[in-house]
Amino acid sequence: MSHDAGGDTTGEIAGDVAASLGRRPLPLPDNVSAPYWEAAARGEVLYQECPACGYRQFYPRALCTACAAEPEWRPASGRGTVHTFTVIRQNWAEPFRDLAPYVVAVVELEEGPRMMTNVTGCAPEDVHIGMPVEAYTIAVEDGLGVPFWRPAPTD
Ligand SMILES: [Zn+2]
Fold first, then answer.
1. Which of 71, 72, 104, 155 allows an S-S link to 48, with CB 3.0 to 4.6 Å?
2. CA–centroid distance, residue 57 to ligand 1 (Å)
3. CA–CA gap between residue 73 and residue 67 (Å, rounded)
4. What secondary structure letter does DSSP report for 41?
């Protein structure tokens, strides 16, 4: 996870699809997913790993999809790559209609699981498969944050 992850607020990324978060329908945490959303509010991205068989999975589920044991939460590094993506150029639903074009992507965490998300912080035409990205989170309210991804800094 980048050191500046967390602490972002919806107002700090004006003009970005992530900035619309406060106007979007929000996730509804349940007993299984609540730790994930709570962690994102603290600036962390979590995935699940099975203590019985080692399988790693995302999205949050009550059981390991490989062996049905109870998975445990693990912090992701916040590093990943774009596995695939699309550019949304038309969406007539608010608040998205004013945000297009924006990127909906499947990001592969370096730990393996894949996450559907938005890649932000660059022009949609600059996104490509295999692109290194880093996670950041936006805290919407107490106990509810949402991860997004942006181009990883080049060293
Ligand atoms: Zn398992």
1. 71
2. 10
3. 16
4. H
Q: How confident is the model at residue 36 (pLDDT cuts 50, 70, 90)?
A: very high
Q: Is the CB of residue 99 less than 8 Å from the CB of residue 118?
A: no
Centre of ligand 1 to C-alpha 33, Å, is 18
Say yes or no to pLDDT of 9 above 60: no
Residues 88, 102 contacting (CB under 8 angstroms)? yes
Distances in Å between the alpha carbon of 99 and those of 2, 57, 60? 26, 30, 28
d(CA 119, CA 135): 9
Residue 100 has a pLDDT of: 87
Nearest partner of 38 among 155, 139, 148, 154, judged by Cα = 139
- Tell me the pLDDT tens digit for each residue of 67-116: 999 999 999 999 999 999 999 999 998 888 888 899 999 999 999 999 99
Task: State in Å: Cα 52 to ligand 1 middle.
Answer: 5
Nearest to 78 by CA among 140, 138, 136: 136
Give residue 58 CA to ligand 1 midpoint distance, Å. Answer: 13
